[in-house]
Amino acid sequence: MTDMSTRPASPTLDEVAVLAGVSRATVSRVINDSPRVSPEAREAVQAAVAELRYVPNRMARSLVTRRTDTIALVLNEPNTQVFSDPFFASIVRGLSATLADTDLNLVLLTARDEREQEKVGRYARQGHVDGVILMSLHSQDPLPDILAVAGVPLVLCGRPFDGREVAYVDADNSGGAVVATEHLLGTGRRRIATVTGPLDMIAGVDRYAGWRQALTAAGVEPDPALVAEGDFTEAGGRRAMEELLARAPDLDGVFVASDPMAAGALRALRAAGRRVPEDVAVVGFDDAAVAETTDPPLTTVAQPLADMTPLLTELLMRQIDGVAGPAESRICQTHLVRRASA
Amino acid sequence: MTDMSTRPASPTLDEVAVLAGVSRATVSRVINDSPRVSPEAREAVQAAVAELRYVPNRMARSLVTRRTDTIALVLNEPNTQVFSDPFFASIVRGLSATLADTDLNLVLLTARDEREQEKVGRYARQGHVDGVILMSLHSQDPLPDILAVAGVPLVLCGRPFDGREVAYVDADNSGGAVVATEHLLGTGRRRIATVTGPLDMIAGVDRYAGWRQALTAAGVEPDPALVAEGDFTEAGGRRAMEELLARAPDLDGVFVASDPMAAGALRALRAAGRRVPEDVAVVGFDDAAVAETTDPPLTTVAQPLADMTPLLTELLMRQIDGVAGPAESRICQTHLVRRASA
DNA sequence: GTGAAAGCGCTAACAA
DNA sequence: TTGTTAGCGCTTTCAC
After folding, report:
1. Does A96 contact B110 at a Cβ distance shorter than 8 Å?
2. What's a Pfam family in this record (chains A, B) (predicted)?
């Protein structure tokens, strides 16, 4: 077991400076794309950098600039199953795509219990990241407070449950549900059920609220028998739909609060011998805005992910740069997508 | 738009020292749990730390210690769908559980294309992390070379395709497949099929090899008609099983290379009117080693995740501490689990 | 356009 | 046990 603790010491700025025949300051200027460098000096430095395979030491740089050029996406969720949530995957993909052209790095942090939340909080406060995008899917979450106290720039992905003063970006969930329900109403349906999301998630609550709102506005009294709570999964959607069919066999339409659940609901409907959409019309809410979901409902409300991810980083950067107003937030419009086969 | 770029300047070690009436060095010692501090000094410092809400500046510390106390789990995978892979989720969960008791942080990095791989490589080389655990599920991956050249400690999660000199931890995939196939052989079956994983993933290749090996050892010639390639998903497993049933209706057993695929295979078998296990016996390979999978096969080979995650961090830490032999690797034993209903 | 010099906040000898 | 001192590698005034 030889002692290998002597890792190939990476070259420093000084060594580059010596090799290039200039001062440290000049090398630094070249590294940082300062315009105040002569072409000759620039070339000499670049050659030296290439020869030495020089990579700036981030710690040294961050110590003085107070920037790490990395932001964290924190996933605050006790359930490991979130990873399989298409919405989560889409956000990750969208964020890294947004940052691909920049020199910002994205790291994912997970926090499954209070200890891990503390750890994430510490990580952020210690200065590892410039800011945090937080996805906390369920109601209670201490992280916003931890980070706020520490003054770490923060944007929530999803409207917070309490009306707290914090920046966030969310889709217009209730608006989307209203549109979906109005679409069903517009085809003459009146016994419109809903398979809700989990009611301890804001997206579940808001979509349910939208369903109620649209019905009420149309003079239809929301019937508790027409409401079944799902869990955003296909299996849960199927179960909820079966429940609804047992409780209210006369339903003629259903707004399903997520696309996987809609796929499950469709299976339940077909298993029960109901025809779709002739007999029962289905509108789903597509978190991932993916067209090629397995067994999709005929019409869906698309989550505006393409709008959300750039906004998340933009709002965060504004805070980091210190040019953000208090708790600047945004709601992105959702829109109905009618499938060809509808 | 007021200028808020003046974030609440966090207190420094000096301020703590002044408040506690000691020197910086003493504060540093207390922070780092040095035993060479008097109880009184320790208390005074701790009080000051609490009062000032002092949090050490990681950049300054790392600059001198050359440690960041964070390791990265890099997910090198073009397909976003990996997130829904139970194996991946289990590894993440296992790693953060392993690190929960330590002061090491875990960050997830994703790399979907060459640009993102470069970015991840840069991130690591710049010194943001002490080491990298790399999950590269498909064959070609430039990251090991990038990191190796830069001297960044690296452990692969999964045996590399080429026989390269690099540390890795993997399950005994071929051994597990052998055990599974032998189990089927032991019940007197001879027409044993297999639903393989993707053959551009090492786990797929190794499990397929184990199936061949067990058959050959038992004097049974592997029949190409009894092989169908799946993609580790339930839908893929169902498709592959249907293919097998069409091609070789006389099969009397099947080794399915993942649990989700096994669930799909079971559905295909039932849809075809086959009885399980009387008619066709099924053994699945359970990557997540989760007992409560939907619709599980009767008998499974369990992936030894509980062994793998501690080993991954252990091997990585040994490299970081410079006490690792060249490319130290480990294979973890898999084992057959017979379900009660079997 | 370039260099000299002063730190950023911390740790780690080395003295005391 | 404690304090003093010298950096870690970089950016950034400020002179030149």
Report:
1. yes
2. LacI
Any idea where the domains of chain A sit in the sequence? 4-65, 70-171+306-333, 173-302
Name the residue with higher pLDDT: A78 or A251: A251
Pick the CATH number of B173-302 from 3.40.50.2300, 3.40.395.10, 3.20.20.70, 3.40.50.1860: 3.40.50.2300
Determine the 3-state secondary structure of B335 from DSSP.
strand
* Residue numbers in B near A323 (CB within 8 A): 1, 3-5
Fold of B4-65: 434 Repressor (Amino-terminal Domain) (1.10.260)
- Residue B57's φ and ψ, nearest 5 degrees, are -80, 110
Domain B70-171+306-333 has CATH 3.40.50.2300: yes
Nucleotide nearest to B17 (CA to C1'): D3
Q: Which of A233, A250, A139 lies closest to A190 in space, CA to CA?
A: A250
Q: Output residues with Cβ under 7 Å from nucleic strand D.
A: A 9, 12-14, 24-25, 28-29, 31-32, 54, 56-57, 60-61, 63-65; B 22-26, 29, 35-38, 40-42, 60, 63-64
What's at B183, amino acid-wise?
A: H
| B1 contacts A323? CB cut-off 8 A | yes
By Cβ distance, the residue of A62, A84, A107 closest to B83 is A84
Q: Do domains B4-65 and B173-302 have the same CATH topology?
A: no
- Inspect the interface and report whether the beta carbons of B92 and A70 lie closer than 8 Å: no
Partner residue opposite A105 with nearest CB, options B96, B115, B119:
B119
**Cα–Cα distance between B95 and B77 in angstroms, integer?**
19
Q: Look at the alpha carbons of A205, A207, A213, A215 in this order and tell me if their dihedral is positive or negative.
A: negative
pLDDT in tens, A266-299: 999 999 999 998 999 999 998 876 544 545 667 8
Amino acid identity, residue B279?
D
Query: Which residues from B are below 8 Å from A112, CB to CB?
Result: 93, 96
Round the average pLDDT of chain A to a whole number and report it: 90
